[in-house]
């Protein structure tokens, strides 16, 4: 997933598992978690948790001062940056679970390969967007091609198992 912050050039482009750093410094992920719901949800929770500012931090920031452990006033630290949006995860089933969490915090989600028609229901998934057409739209396009070229015979090929890298 990608974590986007307002007023910042900091992006996380390291598939679900990363520490936010400038894009030029982003290192490859140690594991691909965008296809596993438990890991994707854990990462989403961490993204959200890391952006929350405690009431105590917020109060000291609004007063423009910070107190060190010894009670001496220090220069205020800029508050944590809210997530503007999240890109990912890969599958529809995981995207649905992540969206159910993100919408509690009004965080938009952009999926790059989730095609389930369920995700098109804006009353359920109002902060969800995708960059690929839904399964129904893809099927409609295939039918339109068959009709356009007046084909009388079409074959479908299907394989089982994981795709090879």
UniProtKB/TrEMBL annotation:
It is found in: Cell membrane. Keywords: Cell membrane, G-protein coupled receptor, Glycoprotein, Membrane, Receptor, Signal, Transducer, Transmembrane, Transmembrane helix. SUPFAM superfamilies: Periplasmic binding protein-like I. Gene3D superfamilies: 3.40.50.2300. Residues 1-26 form the signal peptide. GO terms for cellular component: plasma membrane. GO terms for molecular function: G protein-coupled receptor activity. Residues 31-160 form the Receptor ligand binding region domain. It is a multi-pass membrane protein. This is Receptor ligand binding region domain-containing protein. The lineage of its organism: Eukaryota, Metazoa, Chordata, Craniata, Vertebrata.
């Amino acid at each position: 997933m990608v974590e986007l912050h307002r007023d910042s050039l900091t992006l996380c482009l390291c598939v679900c598992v990363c520490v936010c750093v400038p894009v030029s410094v982003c290192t490859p992920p140690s594991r691909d978690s965008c296809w596993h719901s438990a890991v994707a949800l854990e990462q989403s929770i961490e993204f959200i948790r890391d952006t929350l500012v405690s009431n105590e931090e917020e109060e000291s920031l609004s007063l423009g001062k910070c107190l060190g452990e010894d009670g001496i006033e220090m220069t205020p630290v800029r508050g944590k940056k809210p997530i503007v949006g999240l890109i990912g995860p890969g599958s529809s089933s995981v995207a649905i679970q992540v969206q159910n969490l993100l919408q509690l915090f009004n965080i938009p989600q952009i999926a790059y390969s989730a095609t389930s028609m369920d995700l098109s229901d804006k009353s359920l998934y109002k902060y969800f967007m995708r960059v690929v057409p839904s399964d129904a739209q893809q099927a409609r396009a295939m039918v339109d091609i068959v009709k356009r070229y007046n084909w009388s015979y079409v074959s479908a090929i299907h394989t089982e198992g994981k795709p090879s890298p």
